[in-house]
């Protein structure tokens, strides 16, 4: 019992001050990065001001993939070492990761309107991100479907790992499919040859997103720990009365 | 029932288990040897079923250790114990004989053992009846046939008398007696009248840890 | 065959006979598959060139959805009646049991679906030259769909009304098999070589069959715990 609660106690005391710091850092970094991207960085020579949406779009794509990777790592440690907090971390990261996936899809769609003159283009990257969004939905659905949290945690962890193993296969197949069906994408703004005036705001926003993701995940984890404590107290009371 | 098992000992040390977040027990320890039987006692919700499922390898204990020493070497309980739970594992659309033969093949026992087991549990006249045509007691007998057809040293029986008539209860007692006589052992969760010559383990008692002689 | 496979063979044969017996419902997905294909010209119109263009895609969408239908009861029935816990108490291993069940249900339902596929293909104005490839691609895609569906089935086994959950879990994972099998059929219909696509579809099916038993068995052990 002591080993079960030692870590959550430490987690609760560390996470409490960390959350406001992370939220503040997120607001600052995203604010500065978006300002730089929208007003300081030069307009793209081909796409004009429309390309500026990449400063919210591309970091969202990075963070939604990083979020899934972190969920897979947490799921692995939950399955192998039965670490209680790892379940909660993966569970709480999912809605935040799904939100960034949705931001990525929505901003990609907005970007597509002036460039391709359509709200949705079945571009290989966008299609892969859409599949990732469905993996997030399935993961969250598993947590909701089970009544006992211990069972839900293990089922969700298995699904998360299956998704992580399949993601590279899906990515490869979608790329292959895309080259088969259409010419190379126009959305090629990101790449190693990007000028520093683009790269700095991109990285700043990405760090801001990361801080926001961590803050949201930690907030969710704290709520889960409180909910679990309430459940334990309720079950103890019922047991004491019965 | 002439099969003899090599002498064995099941060592159970300091098993603890939870249901949800509530601790059921934190130190169940006992040893079970060839020819012995243990009655599990305790009110509903005390964790008798959980303990049997832990021993069968279906549920992981929160802590503790199970060592099964079979003829001098450690063996896996899952494949050396028969677990008979509340569910009979009877399929509605398959005849009693077909189901018995399936389990004989799955447990790698001869097909003739399946037919013999059906006779032993009193289902020889019902062997062509599909599962949906069997009464609750007859389904229970079909489940009991699995214990007989493939000899395994340890039986883990969870309220085996459920839905059985008086003859059915006699049958269970006879089967357990014969199993013990052949060198097997059994752990049986029970309410009401008990097994002859069995030790008692009350999982709800605060001092679980010792098996007291009956 | 060596005797070590006797328990797994028993599981396979029993699943097959249960699936084909009265309550098994192995034929229902066939009716669903044919019905979905019948609705296609009603929605698109009977123009042959349009059907020829859309037919392969529609055929594989219908095949993937039909493959999901047997999944809800694949493990759930065994979990509910206690068969699964009895199967688990053996050194056979739930991995082998899961694989045997997938192959049995694929034989009972997936193979008939694949055999129906060329018939529906002709009704959707597909070319006769591609018939063999349609059958082959349906066999390969069906194996992948069943293997992936089994993971969803195992994860949803302990959930009431798990059918929709299985679909939500499995459909995104269907992407590779869907892409390569449909593109093989499009290539064959256009007179191009479908071999590369078929091999990639086969690789997707192999990957699915390799992952499925382990993920399913882990999920089933969770459901039993």
Please tally the β strands of chain C and state the result. 0
Radius of gyration of chain B: 17 Å
Beta-sheet strand percentage of chain B? Answer: 25-35%
Low-pLDDT segments, ≥5 res of chain B: none
Overall SS class of chain C? mainly alpha
Query: Largest beta sheet of chain C, briefly?
Result: none
Largest interface (C-beta under 8 Å):
B-C, 31 and 27 residues
Structural class of chain B: alpha/beta
Q: What are the segments of chain C in which pLDDT stays under 50 over at least 5 consecutive residues?
A: none
**What string gives the helices and strands of chain C in order?**
HHHHHHHHHH
The total count of helices of chain C amounts to: 10
Query: Widest sheet of chain B: strand order?
Result: 6-7-8-3-9
What would you say this structure looks like, in words?
The complex is a heterotrimer of chains A (242), B (214) and C (225). Chain A contains six helices and no strands. By secondary structure, chain A is an all-alpha fold. The N terminus of chain A is likely disordered. Chain B is α/β, with parallel strands linked by helices. In chain B, a hairpin with a 2-residue loop joins strand 1 and strand 2. The mean pLDDT of chain B is 89. Helices cover 28% and strands 27% of the residues of chain B. In chain B, helix 2 runs parallel beside helix 4 and helix 3 crosses helix 4. With 225 residues, chain C is mostly helical. At the B-C interface, strand 6 and helix 2 of B face helix 1 and helix 5 of C.
Blueprint (SSEs and pairs):
The complex is a heterotrimer of chains A (242), B (214) and C (225).
Chain A: H1 2-40, H2 54-81, H3 84-116, H4 124-145, H5 149-181, H6 196-241
Helix pairs in contact in A: 1-6, 2-3, 2-5, 2-6, 3-4, 3-5, 3-6, 4-5
Chain B: E1 8-19, E2 22-33, E3 37-41, H1 48-55, E4 63-70, E5 73-75, E6 81-84, H2 96-106, H3 111-120, H4 136-149, E7 154-158, H5 166-181, E8 185-189, E9 199-202
Parallel strand pairs in B: 3-8, 3-9, 6-7, 7-8
Antiparallel strand pairs in B: 1-2, 1-4, 4-5
Helix pairs in contact in B: 2-3, 2-4, 3-4
Chain C: H1 6-20, H2 28-44, H3 48-68, H4 76-81, H5 83-88, H6 94-123, H7 131-155, H8 163-173, H9 175-189, H10 195-224
